[in-house]
Amino acid sequence: MWPNGWIGTMGNADTAIKGQTASVSECAAGWIARLQSESCSSEDWSRFRAWRAASPEHDATFNTMMNTWDGLDEFAEDPDIMQMRIDAMSLDAANASRPAWLFPLAACLVLMLAGALALAIPSIYASKTGGDIPAVASSSSTAAEGESLAYTQVYSSGVGQLSTVDLPDGSTIELNTDTVVEIDFTPGQRHLNLVRGEAVFEVAHDADRPFVVQAGDRRITALGTIFSVRKTGQEMIVALIEGSIDVEPFEPGARVGSTAGVRLTPGQQARTAGTARDIEVTKVNVDRALSWRTGRLIFDNDRLADAVAEVNRYSERKLVLADPALADMRISGAFTTGSAEKFAAAISVALPVSLDPRRGGSKLLLRKKPAANSTR
């Protein structure tokens, strides 16, 4: 856990302090201060990962410094520590815009206490690469093991936004539009909860720690594979790209694999709806189902109502079918995500539909085109 209120500042930690070369301990302490700064960027996290991976000494020193930093919580109410906290925040505010490495007071404090605090459990911090909020995780592994065993975080994407997350175990998640995923890794299991939306999970193999995704009342278990999960309301759809996964009902307290489920092979999808325990397994065109990863939506003789619902997931302005008779019209084609208006303009070429010219606000009315006047 980051000690509340501790803010430090630095620029590029892979550069030297003016006039001298920074030691590994100074670099590690500087990174600790930088990574919990409000001005920390995804670029900073990328540079940090590169610095840490460059040498086992970097990794071990950072873990030691993180032990010390975590220990500062015990002294949070000490008047001297509180004053140093205030000074560190003031230093951060004063130097936030300077590009060179500014070795912060918070980092100095970490160095000063490094010899005084001895903690048994190191901490490892990781981040997503494509999102808005740096991720913070705690680990109970040793630096020599190099594993991130304990990790909690919540990732989300906005409407129309796609985001890729790198997890500390080597797995990755691709978040589709308007998606929320909760991460809870423990030494015995990698548990994720898809609160809503859709994501592709590329799982790093670890036979001792099952990778389990919960989506409503269903649970998907994998060891090393690539699959997608979509949760919309009460419906859950799982599509398998590589490897194999088990899909089973989720029952609190039940261990993985103890309830009746199905095992998918590549090219299959499982679908459930509502509270029904039955799982429908069918073949799926994976490229089409996951075309959103390239910013496209592909329809093949789909109902217009279903296509509109899919397009609306990626747009703040929503299409509404003004005439129920439009719902069963059929549509095929590839469309770019992100604009309901562009979709409406494109389909109006092939279908007798058009946007209501009185459109406004967050809703766009899609009406049936009036029949052309007949002539004698």
Automatic annotation (TrEMBL):
<keyword id="KW-0472">Membrane</keyword>
<feature type="transmembrane region" description="Helical">
    <location>
        <begin position="101"/>
        <end position="121"/>
    </location>
</feature>
<keyword id="KW-1133">Transmembrane helix</keyword>
<feature type="domain" description="FecR protein">
    <location>
        <begin position="154"/>
        <end position="245"/>
    </location>
</feature>
<dbReference type="Pfam" id="PF16220">
    <property type="entry name" value="DUF4880"/>
</dbReference>
<protein>
    <submittedName>
        <fullName>DUF4880 domain-containing protein</fullName>
    </submittedName>
</protein>
<dbReference type="InterPro" id="IPR032623">
    <property type="entry name" value="FecR_N"/>
</dbReference>
<dbReference type="GO" id="GO:0016989">
    <property type="term" value="F:sigma factor antagonist activity"/>
</dbReference>
<keyword id="KW-0812">Transmembrane</keyword>
<feature type="domain" description="FecR N-terminal">
    <location>
        <begin position="28"/>
        <end position="62"/>
    </location>
</feature>
<dbReference type="InterPro" id="IPR012373">
    <property type="entry name" value="Ferrdict_sens_TM"/>
</dbReference>
<dbReference type="Pfam" id="PF04773">
    <property type="entry name" value="FecR"/>
</dbReference>
<dbReference type="InterPro" id="IPR006860">
    <property type="entry name" value="FecR"/>
</dbReference>
